[in-house]
Specification:
five-stranded antiparallel beta sheet; single chain; 2 domains; alpha+beta; four-stranded antiparallel beta sheet; elongated; Murine Class I Major Histocompatibility Complex, H2-DB, Chain A, domain 1
C-alpha cells in the first residue's frame, strides 16, 4: 500500500528533487505528520547545504495538498493506524528514501526494542527460597511492591486468616484482589519454587515486552526480605 502511494515518479518527489537542485543543496528532507484521526496535517522541510548548514521551510500549497491527500489515503487504508508520519529524504546521490510511520508500527517497534533489551534470570527459585518466603508470610510479613503510587496499588503475596495463600493486588484502603490462590502452604511453596525472575516478569503481560518486570517480584527482592541469597 505505501509503495503505491509514493514513488520516484510522484509529483511530490519530482518537486523535492527539483527544489534540491535549484537551491544547490546536498540534501532536502520532508517531515510530515497527520494527527487527530486524520484531521490535523503539518509538514516541515529541512534544507542541508553542502557545508552542512541547516535551514527550514514548509511546502507550497500545491505539493502540501498532494502530501496531505496521500497521508489521508494511508490513514484510511486500515483501522487503528493512529497518527501518521512521513519522511522523504532526497540527496544529490542515490534514490530517495521514503519512510511511513503509524502508531501501530511505532508500538510494534517499541515492543521489539523492549524484547531485545529484556534480560531476566531464568533460574527457578527452588524450594529453600520458597520455604523462607512462606515463613515470612506465616509471620505476617508485608511482601509487596508498589505498582501505582497515585492509586495506591501494590503487587503482593499474603497469607489469609483461613490459612490459604495468595498472590495478587493490594490497595491502600486495605482491600486485596487475589490473582491466584493456594489452598495450602505446600501448594504455595511448590508454585513459588518453580518460578523465576523471568516467569514473574512476564506473567501479567506475556505479549508486551514493554511491561515485563515492572513492579514484579524477583530474586533480589526475596533476598533482601529473607536476609539470605539463594
Amino acid at each position: 500500500m505505501t509503495s503505491a502511494l509514493l514513488t520516484e515518479d510522484s509529483d511530490i518527489l519530482r518537486w523535492l528533487h527539483a527544489e534540491r537542485g535549484a537551491r544547490g543543496l546536498a540534501r532536502i528532507e520532508l517531515s510530515a505528520s497527520l494527527k487527530h484521526e486524520g484531521t490535523l496535517h503539518d509538514d516541515t522541510l529541512i534544507f542541508t547545504a553542502p557545508d552542512g548548514a541547516l535551514t527550514f521551510g514548509s511546502l507550497p500549497e500545491a505539493p502540501r495538498a498532494q502530501v496531505r491527500e496521500r497521508m489521508q489515503r494511508y490513514h484510511a487504508s486500515a483501522p487503528g493506524l493512529g497518527d501518521i508520519g512521513l519522511s522523504i529524504v532526497c540527496e544529490a546521490e542515490g534514490p530517495p528514501r521514503i519512510r511511513w510511520r503509524d502508531e501501530a508500527r511505532r508500538q510494534q517497534d517499541a515492543k521489539e526494542q523492549a524484547r531485545a533489551e529484556a534480560h531476566f534470570d531464568a533460574r527457578p527459585y527452588g524450594r529453600a527460597l520458597a520455604q523462607r518466603v512462606a515463613e515470612l508470610l506465616d509471620a505476617g510479613a508485608d511482601l509487596s511492591i508498589v505498582l501505582d503510587p497515585r492509586e495506591g496499588v501494590s503487587r503482593a503475596l499474603w497469607r489469609s486468616a483461613d490459612g490459604t495463600y495468595a498472590q495478587g493486588l493490594r490497595y491502600i484502603q486495605g482491600d486485596s484482589q487475589a490473582k491466584q490462590t493456594f489452598a495450602s502452604r505446600e501448594a504455595f511453596m511448590r508454585w513459588l519454587a518453580e518460578q523465576s525472575d523471568e516467569s514473574l516478569a512476564k506473567a501479567e503481560h506475556p505479549d508486551d515486552p514493554r511491561m515485563w518486570g515492572l513492579g514484579t517480584f524477583n530474586r533480589t527482592y526475596f533476598a533482601r526480605k529473607t536476609g539470605r541469597r539463594s
